[in-house]
Design goal:
This protein is 46% helix and 27% strand. By secondary structure, it is of the alpha/beta class. The longest helix is centred in the last third of the chain and has 21 residues. It is globular, with a radius of gyration of 15 Å.
């Protein structure tokens, strides 16, 4: 596997403070995978968007050998200019959101070990184009995870706990 296309999204409910992220990988025309995760501790949806970008890179790194990861080029599509601009350094992390700094530093660490990374911001809810449909799939994954947490239907983990566990492994 030398190229992966990934989509990521987050969903957050201000009333219940429930959060969810969704990731969709297209590795080949007949090979794809999805990830949906309920998380607590998100400050807002932007927080989750940064986490979902990090999760794309972390999960790829942890499912490949070092050599495979080093030869990997990834294109990540997301609908958050906030996450893209934090990663690119054109936006600063706001006070009280230091965890975003940790996520971005870790994402850069993964990116530095790869052959290439391109982050593309797409408009959300744009219909039936291939990019739009993949982005909608991620949106559904994130909303499903958020609703499961909100409605008490599934397990969830604190967002910072997931990060610390994944960084250790």
């Amino acid at each position: 596997m030398s190229k992966v296309v990934a989509f990521c999204d987050a969903s957050y409910d201000n009333k219940s403070l429930a959060g969810g992220v969704g990731v969709y990988y297209q590795c080949a025309p007949s090979d794809d995978a999805s990830l949906s995760l309920s998380v607590s501790g998100m400050k807002d949806c932007n927080y989750g968007e940064v986490f979902s970008l990090w999760l794309v890179l972390c999960s790829l790194a942890q499912t490949m050998t070092e050599k495979e990861f080093a030869n990997l080029s990834v294109v990540v599509y997301l609908d958050s200019d906030h996450a893209m601009e934090l990663f690119n350094g054109t936006r600063q992390v706001k006070e009280g959101r230091e965890f975003e700094t940790e996520l971005i530093k870790s994402a850069h660490s993964y990116s530095d070990k790869m052959k290439g990374l391109e982050i593309v911001c797409v408009k959300s809810h744009r219909g039936f184009s291939p990019l739009g449909m993949a982005n909608e799939h991620c949106d559904r994954l994130a909303k499903k995870a958020m609703r499961a947490m909100r409605d008490g239907l599934g397990a969830h983990r604190p967002i910072e706990e997931v990060f610390k566990e994944k960084v250790k492994s």
